[in-house]
Amino acid sequence: GPGATLPPPSCPSHLDIASSGLKRPAMAQPSGSGLDGQDDPAAWIRGLGIEALLLEALTSHDRDCGLAGIAKAGPSAAREAVAALGIADLIAKAVDALPPAPLAETVASPPPLFPTLSCSFSDVASEQATAGGGPFRDVTRGVAARAPLTINARSAESFETELFVGRCLLLLRPARREEDVFYSERLFDGRSRGLEMQVQGRFKRRPSGTVYLGGEVTERMQLGLVTRGLSKLILQLLVKFNPPGMHYSFGDREGRMLPHIVLPLWRAVDRLVASPPGTAPPELGVPLDESEAARSARKGGASLGEWDPSFTYSFSFNTGYIDLPHWKLHRLPMRDVYLSSFWSDSDLRLVVYEDAPGGGHAWRANRYALCVRITHSPAGGGGSRRQSSSRRLAAAAAARASENDVGDEADGEGGEGNSAALAASSAALAAAGAATLGVTLPHA
Predict the structure, then answer these.
(1) Rounded CA gap, 330 and 320, in Å?
(2) d(C-alpha 43, C-alpha 35), whole Å
């Protein structure tokens, strides 16, 4: 029973679990994690569904091993019993030999509908080729999207820019699990993330500048004196608690720079896998498999990335704080923050770009590897959302009335730190005010 001391037994040298036809359950820990990392070994064994088989296999070799003690022992005694029996490594190896768990839903099911959103790959080369200055939306009004992007597509969708060729998935948690069992069981179950973006492909040339990841909005932000000051203050906190290289701007009157917040991609992404020539890149649509040691070294190192055009790069970022279908920040220790309060009727662009030498993050100078444009339509239908004239006029009047509303770009660059250390309450206004999509917020 609990607390009993078990003598070192004579136990089998192997467990023939794999030959039983048992499948690894979806909730099982990944290969290599084994029993040693479990806080509750007994619960872990039960969760794997191998408890009865394990007991039978071991007791058939040596009925004096006392394996029944594991089943009877409470959680506090289970680890002690397993250690005394000397079977921890055997359990780990046997479980690692199990084939992957079958997934309940196949790719045959259609993706769910998100009627308030419309997504596309932007034709950035054509946008940058437009003549004249002024607001981005006015200058690029006649440029059509390159191709639509299906949210929660069952396979990654292809894109190509002057810098990068690859595939992309934009994945959102459905309002109800049954609306998308396919990605719920592959990605969202047991995790707090509400959005994940996955990209896989190769650079067409070796980037000469820093490659950034982040968000842009398509119109200059009209912020009053108080809101602008508070946003700047919180952005300074973001700079402090994020890796070096963070850059932000509220946009400028001339339309040279879009409101944005970006970080070096090498450090900002949640997972990154570099596949050399001749090796298969990882599967998309499930969490990318980057070891914790490699992830810590990448995020904590001094490098901003060495990009080899012969390699295939797979990376992902996620956040649990943005609800795109309702166009708001949520799950914060305060009321929800609606993005239209800061962005007016702007669209959101999820971007990966190389900052050209001397370009200063100007949208015409950026060398885009990826640009996904997201339009929100509160009435549904996925069409372009445009506010009423009265609301737009009121917003403009309020901006003009704000004392010392300088209106020009407010930009800055980053210091050192860890994004997970930043409290969500401090990140809320900054995320809305500077067009971040959560790459600066703790990942889930």
Answers:
(1) 8
(2) 11
Of 154, 368, 444, 166, residue with least CA distance to 281: 166
Q: How far apart are CA 41 and CA 31, in angstroms?
A: 16
Q: What is the pLDDT of residue 156?
A: 97
Q: Compute the average pLDDT of residues 21-46.
A: 51
DSSP assignment, residue 286? Answer: S
Q: How confident is the model at residue 53 (pLDDT cuts 50, 70, 90)?
A: low
**Residue 249 contacts residue 409 (beta carbons within 8 Å):** yes
Quick one: how many helices (H) and strands (E) in the chain? 14, 16
The tokens for 355 are 């900052």
What is the identity of the amino acid at 149?
Answer: L
How would you write 311-351 as a 3-class SS string? Answer: CEEEEEEEECCEECCCCEECCCCCCCEECHHHHCCCCEEEE
Asked whether residue 417 carries a pLDDT value surpassing 50, the answer given is no
Collapsing DSSP states into helix, strand and coil, what is residue 10? coil
8 A C-beta contact, residue 70 and residue 81 = yes
Identity at 153, one-letter amino acid code: A
Environment class of residue 25 by beta-carbon count within 10 Å: exposed (0-12), middle (13-18) or buried (19+)? middle
Long-range contacts of 15-20 (CB under 8 A, 24+ apart): 15/54, 15/57, 15/58, 15/87, 15/90, 15/91, 15/93, 15/94, 16/57, 16/94, 17/50, 17/53, 17/54, 17/57, 17/94, 17/95, 17/97, 17/98, 18/94, 18/97, 18/98, 18/99, 20/53
Q: What angle do CA 9, 11, 17 make, to 5 degrees?
A: 145
Buried b (16+ CB within 10 A) or exposed e, 419-444: beebebeebbbbbbbbbbbbbbbbbb
Say what the pLDDT of residue 337 is: 82
| pLDDT above 80 for 205 | yes
Average pLDDT over residues 9-30: 48
Q: Where is average pLDDT lowest: 126-130, 294-298, 423-427?
A: 423-427
Q: Residues 161, 163, 167, 172: what is their CA dihedral angle, to the nearest 10 degrees?
A: -80
Is residue 408 a contact partner of residue 205, using CB atoms and an 8 Å limit?
no
- Sign of the Cα torsion 88, 94, 100, 102 reads negative
Between these two residues, 393 and 195, which has the higher pLDDT value?
195
8 A C-beta contact, residue 36 and residue 16: no
What the block records as the tokens of 394 is 């009121």
Cα torsion angle, 28, 30, 35, 40, sign: negative
Residue 144 has pLDDT above 70, yes or no: yes
Distance, in Å, from the CA atom of 309 to the CA atom of 282, rounded to the nearest integer, reads 17
